[in-house]
Design goal:
7 strands, binds coenzyme A, Aminopeptidase, alpha+beta, 148 residues
Length: 148
Amino acid sequence: MTGAPPVARTVDVSVVRPLRGEVLRAGRPTEATAMPGDDHPRARHLAVHAGDELVSVGSVLPEPPPWAPERRGWRIRGMATREGCRGRGLGEVVLGALIDYARSEGGEEIWCNARVGATRFYARAGFVTHGEVFVSEGVEHVAMWRSL
Ligand SMILES: CC(C)(COP(=O)(O)OP(=O)(O)OC[C@H]1O[C@@H](n2cnc3c(N)ncnc32)[C@H](O)[C@@H]1OP(=O)(O)O)[C@@H](O)C(=O)NCCC(=O)NCCS
């Protein structure tokens, strides 16, 4: 890691997939790193690098929350910071930039299915939970959202 402040840059989805795979799809085949909506024309994929190393990624795409299909909602997917680089504010930089982008695109609210272990991370950015905890691919999740 360098001392320079972290910057989230727009990248092709192919850049975010390896870290996504490592953190969120460990032990699964490469195809498992693709997520629905990755190729949506308005989807945005962001990455923070430390030197040449990819250290944090996240994506956002237009998709209303299932509980409010009439709203101009944006969905966050694939938030991941490399193990060993967590807790340094990199994810916060990515999340903040995803929120700014969705807002700039006219979004009314932003949401995600958060891993239960990441709920404090999203809550610090103003997200609140919606509904009950559910299990997806063996991991406990809960929907979270905030206005833009
Ligand atoms: C969630 C995640 C993307 C946050 O990224 P990050 O770069 O660590 O984010 P920040 O540094 O801005 O926030 C750090 C949070 O992690 C905590 N933290 C500190 N050291 C940590 C470590 N070694 N490992 C994990 N979390 C740590 C911080 O205290 C802070 O906690 P809080 O938000 O629960 O209060 C990252 O922890 C991660 O990739 N987790 C595994 C995958 C995951 O759960 N992704 C989210 C799917 S919804």
